[in-house]
């Protein structure tokens, strides 16, 4: 799986760890602004856990906003890159807990991670244990019922990605989160990706509004 991951996420950018930059800084800023605007991310001084942080773009964006951030990244290359940039990152949640760095988080972010995990229910149950009863989990993943998936079918790039072990529909994601002890809701509003063209970005925003965008963006609250 590690070899497949590295071969799939290997753009031309030669910067160490660049292939893992799955949340570009401009998009990370817009996502955090959306989470703050709707009271999902904690205010300055709150605690956030970014699980699957990659090279740390979103984690660093949250730190810059005054949020106390811990991060988890299982991949050695990405974790080393994140740590070199100043992210407080560990390999596993268990390692973080052993070192006394875990606890009750105001929000946990799981950005384009759950589709890569062999046992997603176990992961979500573990995260449920470390989120505050009044906190939230923000999760994004490919949407198997998106307009793009329906149009392209088996040619949809998210379906052909060998590192994607699971593909979720809104319904299957809701059931998965419920089994882990969360109640799912949609992310309020929309997040426009600044890395794509104007027309593509506007179409994406419209599709988010009708729940047909290529990416599921949901907020889950503990129950």
Report the end-to-end length measured between terminal Cα atoms: 33 Å
Report the CATH superfamily.
Vaccinia Virus protein VP39
Biggest beta sheet summary: 7 strands, mixed
What is the CATH C level class, in words?
A: Alpha Beta
Low-confidence stretches: 4-21
| Biggest sheet strand line-up | 3-2-1-4-5-7-6
**Which range does the strand content fall in?**
15-25%
Radius of gyration: 16 Å
Task: Tell me the CATH topology.
Answer: Rossmann fold
Overall, the morphology is globular
Helix content: 25-40%
Number of helices: 10
Mean pLDDT: 82
Features:
single chain; 223 residues; Rossmann fold
How does this structure look, described?
Helices cover 39% and strands 20% of the residues. Helix 2 (25-37) packs across helix 3 (57-64). The N and C termini lie far apart (33 Å). By secondary structure, it is an alpha/beta fold. It is globular and about 45 Å long. The protein has a seven-stranded mixed sheet with strand order 3-2-1-4-5-7-6, with helices on both faces. The chain has helices spanning 2-8, 25-37, 57-64, 76-84, 93-98, 120-130, 147-152, 157-160, 170-179, 198-209, and strands at residues 47-51, 68-72, 89-90, 105-111, 131-142, 182-186, 215-222. It has one domain (2-222): Vaccinia Virus protein VP39 (Rossmann fold), CATH 3.40.50.150.
Put the structure in a nutshell:
By secondary structure, the protein is α/β, with parallel strands linked by helices. 39% of the residues lie in helices and 20% in strands. It is globular.
